Amino acid sequence: MSTEIKTQVVVLGAGPAGYSAAFRCADLGLETVIVERYNTLGGVCLNVGCIPSKALLHVAKVIEEAKALAEHGIVFGEPKTDIDKIRTWKEKVITQLTGGLAGMAKGRKVKVVNGLGKFTGANTLEVEGENGKTVINFDNAIIAAGSRPIQLPFIPHEDPRVWDSTDALELKEVPKRMLVMGGGIIGLEMGTVYHALGSEIDVVEMFDQVIPAADKDIVKVFTKRISKKFNLMLETKVTAVEAKEDGIYVSMEGKKAPAEAQRYDAVLVAIGRVPNGKNLDAGKAGVEVDDRGFIRVDKQLRTNVPHIFAIGDIVGQPMLAHKGVHEGHVAAEVIAGKKHYFDPKVIPSIAYTEPEVAWVGLTEKEAKEKGISYETATFPWAASGRAIASDCADGMTKLIFDKESHRV
């Protein structure tokens, strides 16, 4: 069965960027349709990303704090974990939030079409869903189709013991020994969760530090703490992955590489994400997509086709939900005729690990690359009574400011 819809704005993708754009369009009086391939709104972030990871990280934090308090005279005994109950609670959190989004869409009269949407022309989109095809004729489109985990050809991704972030968040089991490929935020957060639940964690990272986007002195404090929990193999890369009956065997080379292939019960591949730009037939609408799948936009989030906009992961780094939300608001307001543009000077980044690492604005590394004359100031938390009382005196705060104007 085929149906046809006419709308002022169609939003392709219902993650934070997409639903924020759609809701803002509706608030501004524009007739709006969301196309989403899954049955719930929220995209990767709410369903298999930010929200479930934060739920599990909360569990991990409580477990670790319960253990640490023994040194201060409060003994709970060894924490006992029920994986099924933890998983059920995590799913409850997701259901509550996605249900809330559905209610917000209904309240704003935003129509949701479930299925895989692809362009068929500059003003038409075809959605293939369970109930047949839906043809959408639109005046304006906002592409918010997100990204997916990177897969490497030499890794047997089809083996259930080889995970991406979505698999790790399902919490089907707690492996005895687990390798995290990639020392970025996603890998370290998942390593934090599974270590708290009882896994032995190895982390392999090809650069000379974890969280490569952050400054070394900030990461140094973090690395010192997590080295007590994880086996960190920096300046090391994976060269082969073989699935055998008794485990996943991984060979490595580099500074910290073991001489022999290592056996793991699970391998989490967390080496980044790629945009979904090539999955939309965007070329049929005249939209240019680069070789990596990114869509180039101007400061108003317009693509090379003036009435088609793009936001979120698909337009480039950083791939962060809160960046996409702001882009969504800008795109909606431009479509509504308002003079607005996206000028991201300070996008915050954070690793919700234990301890947490966060930064906002230019890093020292970026300031050097831009040729900015700068100075730094640091405050050691060892001088903070609150930090000492909270058992986190090894932390620090760092400011980077312009040498002449002293602007942070």
TrEMBL record:
<keyword id="KW-0285">Flavoprotein</keyword>
<dbReference type="Pfam" id="PF02852">
    <property type="entry name" value="Pyr_redox_dim"/>
</dbReference>
<keyword id="KW-0676">Redox-active center</keyword>
<dbReference type="InterPro" id="IPR012999">
    <property type="entry name" value="Pyr_OxRdtase_I_AS"/>
</dbReference>
<comment type="similarity">
    <text>Belongs to the class-I pyridine nucleotide-disulfide oxidoreductase family.</text>
</comment>
<keyword id="KW-0007">Acetylation</keyword>
<dbReference type="InterPro" id="IPR016156">
    <property type="entry name" value="FAD/NAD-linked_Rdtase_dimer_sf"/>
</dbReference>
<keyword id="KW-0963">Cytoplasm</keyword>
<dbReference type="InterPro" id="IPR023753">
    <property type="entry name" value="FAD/NAD-binding_dom"/>
</dbReference>
<dbReference type="InterPro" id="IPR036188">
    <property type="entry name" value="FAD/NAD-bd_sf"/>
</dbReference>
<dbReference type="GO" id="GO:0005737">
    <property type="term" value="C:cytoplasm"/>
</dbReference>
<dbReference type="Pfam" id="PF07992">
    <property type="entry name" value="Pyr_redox_2"/>
</dbReference>
<protein>
    <recommendedName>
        <fullName>Dihydrolipoyl dehydrogenase</fullName>
        <ecNumber>1.8.1.4</ecNumber>
    </recommendedName>
</protein>
<keyword id="KW-0560">Oxidoreductase</keyword>
<dbReference type="GO" id="GO:0004148">
    <property type="term" value="F:dihydrolipoyl dehydrogenase (NADH) activity"/>
</dbReference>
<dbReference type="GO" id="GO:0006103">
    <property type="term" value="P:2-oxoglutarate metabolic process"/>
</dbReference>
<dbReference type="InterPro" id="IPR050151">
    <property type="entry name" value="Class-I_Pyr_Nuc-Dis_Oxidored"/>
</dbReference>
<comment type="subunit">
    <text>Homodimer.</text>
</comment>
<keyword id="KW-0274">FAD</keyword>
<feature type="domain" description="Pyridine nucleotide-disulphide oxidoreductase dimerisation">
    <location>
        <begin position="347"/>
        <end position="408"/>
    </location>
</feature>
<dbReference type="InterPro" id="IPR006258">
    <property type="entry name" value="Lipoamide_DH"/>
</dbReference>
<dbReference type="InterPro" id="IPR004099">
    <property type="entry name" value="Pyr_nucl-diS_OxRdtase_dimer"/>
</dbReference>
<dbReference type="GO" id="GO:0050660">
    <property type="term" value="F:flavin adenine dinucleotide binding"/>
</dbReference>
<keyword id="KW-0520">NAD</keyword>
<keyword id="KW-1015">Disulfide bond</keyword>
<feature type="domain" description="FAD/NAD(P)-binding">
    <location>
        <begin position="8"/>
        <end position="328"/>
    </location>
</feature>
